[in-house]
Design brief:
By secondary structure, the chain is mainly alpha-helical. It is built from 8 helices and no strands. The longest helix has 29 residues.
């Protein structure tokens, strides 16, 4: 097989995998509906995720993560897109980290922030706890920025980025492959 054919086959394979990932993300964000969603986490676990999400993305001049329902996105993702083994592992790690004695909800606001800052600082240590927290934080951030609030108020959303301007080829300076 020559290099050209290899690159064509590789681009086809990568294009297919990118399309499937994109479809999964679109399905996760479009199927998420606050009113019709059945929670998979307990009330206590959801409240804990809500507090954690507000510590990660607090209310400033833009809404907080809980105002954008990022905690509900985490719940939806875990219970609809993870395998049962992954769900059990995620929930078990969550309970081990945040529902230990004392529970995260029983701590004062300053203690909660300090705990999250400590865990966040150790996020890349390679331990099972840090890997779990990195996944939780990733889901919170994705849930926030793919929500309507996150996309329109936190990001500089511009559906039409500028006026149409015709550009002559000699102004471009050549063709890029």
């Amino acid at each position: 097989m020559n290099r050209r054919q290899f690159l064509i086959n590789l681009s086809v394979a990568l294009g297919c995998s990118v399309v499937s990932i994109e479809n999964m993300v679109v399905a996760a964000t479009s199927a998420f509906d606050r009113e019709t969603m059945k929670a998979g986490f307990t009330e206590k676990q959801l409240e804990c995720i809500k507090l954690i999400s507000d510590i990660i993305i607090p209310h400033t001049d833009t809404p907080s993560a809980s105002e954008a329902d990022a905690h509900l996105y985490v719940d939806y993702y875990v219970h609809h897109f993870m395998t049962p083994d992954e769900q059990n592992k995620f929930v078990g790690q969550f309970d081990n980290l945040f529902n230990a004695n004392p529970s995260f909800l029983d701590l004062s606001a300053n203690q909660q922030v300090n705990l999250i800052e400590t865990i966040d600082g150790d996020m890349y240590q390679g331990s099972e706890q840090s890997t779990f927290y990195r996944k939780l934080k990733q889901l919170i951030v994705i849930g926030y920025y793919t929500s309507k609030i996150g996309a329109t108020q936190a990001l500089n959303f511009d559906p039409i980025p500028g006026p149409y301007q015709e550009i002559k080829l000699n102004q471009v300076g050549g063709v890029w492959f």
